[in-house]
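[Primary structure, fold]
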Amino acid sequence: MSTAVGRSAGESWRVLRTPLLVTGAIVLIAIIVMIATTARTSGPFSPDSTESDGARALATLLKNHGVNVHGTEVLEDAVQSGNGKTLVIGPAGSLDRYDWTRIADARWSHLVLIRPGSRALEILAPGVHDTGQVLSSGSRGPGCELPAAVKAGTVTVGGSTYSAPSTAQRCYGDGINNTVIRLDTGDRIVDVVGTPRSFTNEELAEDGNAALALNLLGTNQELTWYLPQWESSGFDDEESDGPPLIPPDVRYIGWALAFAVLVVALWRGRRLGPVIAERLPVIVHAAETTEGRARLYRRSRARDRAAAALRESALGKLHKAHGIPRRADPSAVVATVAARTGRDPAMLYELLYGLPPLSDAALMSLSHELDVLTQEVRHR
């Protein structure tokens, strides 16, 4: 007949229910916070962000000039009919060809592409290409006849540069590589901006940055500010920009779970409390333990182990009495003890480090000699 020693289902539930409830509550709070913040965009070049790389200042400037700014991270807001409206697409996320085509079919009157990739340029701004050159940050004149640039004058620019056909307006560059391109496709106006930092909270007040941003983005009263995310509604193609295998939202949930596990671990660790002295069921005296161990040595005729134990105990006392390091060389120990006791070093070496005794009588003699030696050292 066997006796079950494991926990029953009820006991397991009573032990685990509190950690599970704590973990569930933390995850639930994290999900609620994420849901509550989805209505507002965040991160670099966000119209709601007050960080140095955000664009809250520009969004406020546009609103003060009668432009209704709608920030979004939802693709469906960017593929609705945009006739008579402006769509700004931020430099984040990744969309496939199908999504960019849907945005092109929405027929926005004015598109502003902030540091776009090759796929976006191919579909929304044909003829415009990323040169792969990065323009160093600095103040530059417009170098073109685009009214928005002429009114803004000198602007602090720096970043990605583009080449464009001769029919396009090419501004703020070195003549070949330009950071601002305006392309009129007939049914819409497309602005390509490779210098998003010029429109951020940190640099908007420099030179004519604010004027250029207002003149480019404030052409219509309705403006949708879209920040693409790591999502796609269609099938990717061979030129995929390579969105991450784990979307950001999943990473946030993973961090929330890791934090919950850490909190539970700390909480459970504190439950251990201080060490409590527990009364032993039987008290065994040290002398009885020593005698029992000696009987075991005698029964197995382990004179070598018994002698080693006696010598180790004697050496410990000698080391303590003379201040000798525990790992001192045997010759140093023998020399120190000989100088202290006046004994023959050769006899001391044989006593402390000699061969194991061959009989019980020799073992008893060794024990007696070691005891006498330690007594001599103790009383000197």
